[in-house]
Write a structure and sequence with these properties.
With 408 residues, this protein is of the alpha/beta class. It has 20 helices and 13 strands. The chain binds one RNA strand of 81 nucleotides through helix 14, helix 17 and helix 20.
RNA sequence: GGAGGGGUAGCGAAGUGGUCAAACGCGGCAGACUGUAAAUCUGUUCCUUCGGGUUCUAUGGUUCAAAUCCAUAUCCCUCCA
């Protein structure tokens, strides 16, 4: 299987700017870039799913450059319905540093920052050197802008696409970049760059987008319980990652294996077959978790996450000593219990619940267990005596969320 | 600059003086079922010392009573210049 066929088979090709790209990907070694704006100080799993294509292309001999948008992040690309809240310059700087470090660690590619070539550009030069090449009518036709005409869009965000187009042209001149890859929502910005390059440099650049990775309900991959899954393992533990992945629904797990792992066609088809026969074993989900966590955090972390999950979900934890628990579940969110108190208060102090009302709702609704025992009395006193080795409580909220309560 | 229309909970959206802590939908959380799945069904979704307290862009005002009426500010949309 050649490069393009491989990408196609995995469902990673949505749009390509020209049919020639297929041949180029198969026969030439291209330098390409993929970018992200620094909206947070760590990448999340959405970045992972799209940046992985860079690693994939690199395996076929193409040269990846990761762009962190220190300049474009100051503007913000138009979201579907709302104007973005601007991020302060200090935050952008901080985020750029975080992402750059992470991108190098996880993906190991060259990282560039578009602030470097944008910061000294004057408004007049911007308008003359770039603005003159792009027709407003052309911009209005772009979906990313068009869908905002109803709700309103400021000039700031309107101009974003040109900034991104400038990056493409700059990287072409500076680094010989001829291809930009991105998620499908970036199509409009990619084509602006291609247009600029054609007009300004008289050269044909290429763009390719991949579909957003969605779950069975059409929700973006990685959206869970309101918290993002961060790639920084200090922000999201390997255990949390494992839990997210092991719960992948049957309908999409094979698709995820294709898109998010480096397993080849034969391997995936074999897993698919087994998975269809015995979905309840969740073998495919297990492999997915293994592949992704190993790639991101390393094998040690994967094993830890797996051991921890196994202990929590398929073994009787009441046999464990407090030491075992503290060792195995070190990454788990925990509450330091300063003094004995009713359960409803503990849940609030530990940030397990937002309010006492919620705390009571959960307790009386059978949703809270202490050391695997359901507690339904709001005023149940959490005492030292009741703790494992007079030290630790394993607090379970709902079916899957665990917290440690540790006596001081 | 002018004319008009708007700003309601995480989001969308009803409500146009008291029966409003605010319908409904989505989302979130939880329960049942299960495979730590999906689908489905059920409950719940401002805070509370359970007396009550604080909400409908903001600040003042009218009224026994305001999300609802008035004034000013502010932000957004549409059209005109």
């Amino acid at each position: 299987m050649n490069c393009f066929e491989d990408l196609k088979w995995r469902g990673l090709v949505k749009d390509i700017s020209s049919p020639e790209l297929e041949k180029k990907l198969n026969e030439e070694k291209l330098t390409f870039y993929i970018g992200t704006d620094p909206t947070a100080d760590s990448m999340h799993i959405g970045h992972f799913s799209s940046f992985l294509i860079a690693t994939r292309l690199a395996k076929y001999g193409h040269k990846p450059i990761l762009l962190i948008g220190g300049a474009t992040g100051l503007i913000g690309d138009p979201k579907p319905s709302l104007e973005r809240q601007m991020i302060s310059k200090e935050d952008v700087l901080k985020n750029v540093a975080g992402l750059t470090k992470q991108a190098k660690e996880i993906f190991g590619f060259e990282v560039v920052n578009n602030y470097d070539w944008t910061k000294d550009l004057s408004v007049l030069d911007f308008l003359r050197d770039y603005g003159k090449y792009i027709n407003v009518n052309y911009m209005l036709d772009k979906d990313i802008i068009n869908r905002r005409l109803e709700s309103g869009i400021t000039f700031c965000e309107f101009a974003y696409t040109i900034l991104q187009g400038m990056d493409f042209v700059h990287l072409y001149k500076d680094k010989g970049v001829t291809l930009q890859v991105a998620g499908s929502d970036q199509w409009g910005n990619i084509t602006t760059g291609i247009e600029l390059a054609r007009k300004k440099e008289d050269v044909e650049l290429y763009g390719m987008t991949m579909p957003l990775v969605l779950d069975a309900n059409g929700v973006k991959f990685g959206k869970t319980e309101g918290n993002a899954l961060w790639l920084d393992k200090n922000k999201t533990s390997s255990y949390e990652f494992y839990q997210y992945l092991i719960n992948t629904s049957d309908e999409v797990v094979v698709d995820y294996l294709k898109k998010l792992t480096f397993l080849n066609k034969e391997e995936i088809e074999k897993i698919e077959k087994e998975h269809k026969e015995k979905p309840e074993l969740r073998k495919a989900q297990e492999i997915l978790a293994q592949e992704i966590i190993t790639f991101l955090h390393g094998e040690e972390e994967y094993k830890k996450a797996k051991t921890m999950s196994k202990a929590l979900f398929s073994e009787d934890i009441t046999n464990l000593s407090s030491e075992d628990i503290l060792n195995n579940f070190r990454d788990m969110e925990h509450v330091i219990i300063e003094k004995e108190m009713p359960l409803e208060d503990l849940l609030v102090t530990g940030n397990i619940c937002q309010s006492k009302r919620e705390s009571r709702e959960l307790i009386s609704g059978n949703a809270i267990s202490l050391n695997n025992k359901k507690i339904t009395d709001n005023m149940y006193l959490v005492t030292k005596e009741g703790a494992i080795d007079k030290k630790v409580y394993l607090i379970k909220k709902g079916k899957k969320k665990y917290y440690l309560g540790i006596f001081n």
